[in-house]
Design a protein that fits this description.
- The structure is a single chain.
- The protein is α+β, with helices and mostly antiparallel strands.
- The protein has one domain: Histidine kinase-like ATPase, C-terminal domain (Heat Shock Protein 90, 2-Layer Sandwich), CATH 3.30.565.10.
- The chain is 51% helix and 21% strand.
- It is built from six helices and seven strands, in the order ααβαββαββααββ.
- Strands 1, 2, 3, 4, 5, 6 and 7 form a seven-stranded mixed β-sheet that branches.
- β4 and β5 form a beta hairpin.
- α3 packs parallel to α4.
- The longest helix has 32 residues.
- The termini are far apart.
Length: 226
Amino acid sequence: MDVEVDGILVAAHELKEPLATLRQLAFSFDEMSEPNELIREKMVSVSDRAIRQVNDLLKLRRLESSLPEMSPLAVRPVCDEVIRELEYLFRYNKRELFVKFPGKEQLAYANRELLFSVVYNFLLNAVHYTGDEMRAEIMVKPIKDKIRILVRDYGPALPMDVWREMQRGWVEKPTSIAMRPGSSGLGLFIASKFSKYMDAKVGAVRHRDGTSFYVDLMRSKQMSLF
C-alpha cells in the first residue's frame, strides 16, 4: 500500500474517536424543540455515515494480511438491507429510488460484509448526485457467468480520468471529482478496493444525464434460488 493511502488510513484511525464522541453528544441533549430535534437527527446520521466509511478504511489494512471469507451469497437480501439503511436519506433529499431485481434469485460468490459496503457506497453516491427530486435506480441482472449490481444516478457527468480508473477495475486513491462538488471519491475508492479483494470487477458507464456504477460478481456454482 503506497505512502499516501497509508496516511489516509492513519488519519481514519484518528478520526474514529471524535466522530463517535460527536454522535454521543448529539444523544446527550434533553428534550428539544422540533427544529432542534431535526438537527440532532442530522448530526447522528452524518456521524453514522462517516463512522461507517472510517471503519471501511480500517478494514483495508486487515485485508492486506487476511483475505476475506467467501461463500455463496444471495445478493438481493444484501441490497435490500442497504436500501433500508439509506431510504430515509433518499426521502430527506426528496430523491426517489427505483429498484429492479430479477424474479429468480441467483447466488454470487462473495463476502457479505464487503458486498454490503460496495452497494452502500454506490447508493450513497447516488443520493448526493441525483438532481433535485429526481430518481436513482438500483438493479441486479445476470451477465453471462457474472451477476451485476448496478446503481444509476442522474448527476453531473463523471470525468474521463475517474471513468478510466473504474473501467480498469479499481480507483487508486480518493481524489476530488470535478463537476461533483463535495466528493472526495472516497466511496468509489472503498468500493473498488473491496471488490478487488472479492475477485469482483467494478466499472462505470457515462450517460448524457448521469452515471451508472456497477460491480460484477462471480456467479456461484451452487443451485440458484427460486
